[in-house]
Recover the amino acids of this structure.
C-alpha cells in the first residue's frame, strides 16, 4: 500500500506544482512520471534493504536461477528507470522498459500468492496484487503514450 500511496501522492504533488506554474510538470503524463519515479525509487531501494531483500529472494520462483542476483538486477533496473522517468528525453523509453519489467516480475507475485507461508512483507492476496499491478502498468502506459 505504501507503494501505491507514493505513486498517488507523488503524482498529485507534482500536478499541483504544475498548476502553480512549474513547467516541468505541466501535464498529467509528466506528473505521473514523477509519481512513478518516487514509487520505483522506493521499490528499488527495497531490493537492497536486508529484510525486504530476503523476502524478495524468497518469492522468486524456484525455476529461475540465482534469485539473489535477479533481485539485485531488478532493483538496479528500477532505480535506473526512476532516473530515466525524470529526464524528459528518456522518459518514454524508461516508462516502456519499466512496463516490461513489471510484466516480467509479476510471476513472483503469483508464486508468492501460492506459497503456504509467504514472507510477512509480501501480501498473499493475488487479487489485491493484480489490481495494484494494473494501476502501475496503466501509469507507465500513460507516461509512455502521453509523453511521446
Amino acid at each position: 500500500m505504501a507503494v501505491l500511496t507514493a505513486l498517488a501522492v507523488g503524482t498529485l504533488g507534482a500536478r499541483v506544482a504544475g498548476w502553480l506554474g512549474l513547467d516541468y510538470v505541466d501535464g498529467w503524463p509528466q506528473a505521473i512520471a514523477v509519481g512513478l519515479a518516487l514509487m520505483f525509487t522506493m521499490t528499488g531501494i527495497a531490493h537492497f534493504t536486508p529484510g525486504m531483500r530476503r523476502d524478495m529472494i524468497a518469492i522468486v520462483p524456484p525455476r529461475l536461477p540465482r534469485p539473489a542476483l535477479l533481485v539485485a538486477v531488478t532493483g538496479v533496473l528500477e532505480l535506473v528507470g526512476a532516473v530515466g522517468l525524470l529526464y524528459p528525453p528518456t522518459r518514454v523509453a524508461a516508462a516502456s522498459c519499466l512496463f516490461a519489467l513489471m510484466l516480467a516480475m509479476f510471476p513472483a507475485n503469483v508464486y508468492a500468492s501460492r506459497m503456504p507461508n509467504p514472507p510477512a512483507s509480501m501480501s498473499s492476496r493475488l487479487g489485491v496484487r493484480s489490481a495494484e499491478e494494473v494501476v502501475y502498468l496503466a501509469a507507465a502506459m500513460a507516461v509512455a503514450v502521453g509523453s511521446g
